Amino acid sequence: MRLLFCLLPLLGASLACSATPPAPALEDRPVDTARPADAAPAPIVVPTVVARYPHDTGAFTQGLLWHKGSFYESTGQVGQSQIRQVRLADGKVLQSAAVRADVFGEGMALWKNDLVSLSWQNGTGWRWDRATLRQKSEFRYPGEGWGLTQDGRRLILSDGTAELRFLDPVTFAEQGRIRVTADGQPVMNLNELEYVKGEILANIWQTAMIARIDPATGRVKGWLDLRSLVAQVTVTDPDAVLNGIAYDAAKDRLFVTGKYWPSLFEIRIPK
């Protein structure tokens, strides 16, 4: 899908280009000179699996969100990209709409009654009616599109770099950016996003780690280590990596899945 960068120097040199990184050695982390001297490195926690549900192994998951009892999922690959409504219990696709056949679909967010979706390298996005999945409009934006979420005021877009963009949800005009760092180092390959309880959760592409990002500063407040969860997934395709975060605010449930995965997991973060 994309060229693999050597990632996450902040988590130790042994993590570069690794899909399931070893735990970082704290002494190997560079010093963040911008933070107080007594500030601890971002903690790493291992979520527990609460439940496991079926997931379509044909879905190259790019975006995932929960709304009023259903998942909405965007999938990728040229000629195969879709917007879908999916049932939790059995992973059945309740309805779907094809993304333009010449583009590679990417992340997606909900804004009011619309789903907003991205393309990877075409600089084109779309608005879809959530209830019918009818395409309503098309818009343009500069650069690549990877992940998308919203904080109730703005859309938040990742593009595979260490920056997140804040966008007007109506005009898509850029309203600002943050540079995401951990221990003073930029965090590259920010991918699928979900806004949860005042934090931006971000998959780090080609790893089993999810960053918990402070949207005001861009600093990583903590890491979710999902290596043990990834080990439960029997996939052999090298592109079948962790990607897809959804939050059910009404029931305080967090879900994750991956590209071509046979399962979707409900997880709980330790307090």
Automatic annotation (TrEMBL):
Source domain of life: Bacteria
UniProt keyword Transcription regulation, yes or no: no
PROSITE patterns registered for this protein in UniProt: PROKAR_LIPOPROTEIN (PS51257)
Keyword Phosphoprotein among record annotations: no
Key words of the record: Signal
Signal peptide: 1-18
Pfam family, one: Glu_cyclase_2
Gene3D superfamilies named in the record: YVTN repeat-like/Quinoprotein amine dehydrogenase
InterPro entries found in the cross-reference section: QCT (IPR007788), WD40/YVTN_repeat-like_dom_sf (IPR015943)
Record PANTHER family: GLUTAMINYL-PEPTIDE CYCLOTRANSFERASE (PTHR31270:SF1)
Name under which the protein is recorded: Glutaminyl-peptide cyclotransferase
